[in-house]
Design a protein that fits this description.
This protein has one helix spanning 2-106, and strands spanning 110-113, 121-122, 127-131, 140-149, 154-163, 166-172, 176-177, 182-194, 199-204, 211-213, 219-222, 231-233, 245-246, 248-254. With 255 residues, it is of the alpha+beta class. Strands 3, 5, 6, 7, 9, 11 and 12 form a 7-stranded antiparallel β-sheet that branches. A 4-stranded antiparallel β-sheet has the order 1-14-4-8, with no helix packed on it. A 3-stranded antiparallel β-sheet has the order 2-10-13, with no helix packed on it. It is rod-shaped, with a radius of gyration of 49 Å. Residues 25-66 form a coiled coil. Keywords: Coiled coil.
């Protein structure tokens, strides 16, 4: 009887173990199936990503080619534009020079200054002559100077502008060479912008080079030159009572 009970217990245990083993196997199969499905899905996604990467690489290569072509075209356009600008500037400069010469030859410029006639009185030593008789009537550009002189000599032109109570040198022209006695018409190296009210001044290292008359004008003078940016009160100029007139003036295109 005791043996039978032992056999029965062993059979029950074996049956239970068999059931447990069967359940574990089923779970393992299900897990394997799930992992296989996930692996297939991952492989499919990897394949799709590879295709997308290939497509992006092709687009990148195409973009690089397009950018290369655009860069070459841009360089070509820049070179063409630069050459065109240079040609246009050369054309304009040539025509500006011709126009200036035409205006000079035809005497079509605006003139601001004293009448070009022979005069008698002279100063000794250097002199800076400011033409308060003829301030600029309008703004514009000065192109050159006309001076009736006693001899060939160097001189320079300045432009003074009134700032509050002083006159400031806003332009200091280079030393010019008058080639002869009598009337000299000399172009400036560059056009000079002026405003209404500006005053032309003329510096002569030798005052005997230029003559004047008294009693008809309002040219005033200093015995020294003024530097660019230098300033002076009008009352510091000599010659107010002399009422001097010189055969000096500037010409250009005024508005």
């Amino acid at each position: 009887m005791h043996s039978f009970r032992l056999l029965l217990a062993a059979a029950v245990v074996a049956s239970l173990l068999g059931c447990q083993t069967t359940g574990d196997m089923k779970k393992l199969k299900d897990t394997n199936q799930t992992l296989e499905n996930q692996l297939r899905q991952a492989n499919a996604e990897i394949a799709s990503l590879k295709q997308q990467q290939q497509a992006l690489n092709q687009e990148l290569q195409t973009t690089k080619q397009v950018l290369g072509v655009m860069g070459t075209e841009k360089q070509s356009r820049v070179a063409e534009s630069t050459a065109l600008r240079q040609q246009a500037r050369s054309f304009l400069l040539d025509n500006v020079d011709r126009m200036r010469q035409f205006l000079l030859d035809a005497n079509l410029n605006d003139y601001v200054g004293g009448e070009q006639v022979a005069r008698k009185l002279v100063d000794k030593g250097p002199v800076l002559i400011a033409d308060f008789s003829h301030p600029m009537p309008r703004g514009g550009q000065l192109l050159g100077v006309t001076a009736q002189l006693n001899a060939a000599c160097p001189f320079a032109v300045r432009v003074l502008r009134k700032v509050e109570n002083e006159y400031v040198v806003i332009w200091q022209g280079p030393m010019l060479e008058a080639k002869q006695a009598g009337v000299n018409r000399i172009m400036f190296p560059v056009a000079v912008g002026v405003e209404a009210g500006d005053v032309a001044a003329y510096y002569f290292p030798d005052g005997q080079c230029v003559a004047y008359d008294k009693g008809t004008g309002n040219f005033r003078y200093l015995s020294n030159d003024l530097p660019l940016g230098g300033s002076v009160y009008a009352t510091r100029f000599d010659g107010e009572k002399d009422r001097r007139m010189y055969s000096l003036g500037v010409f250009g295109l005024l508005k």
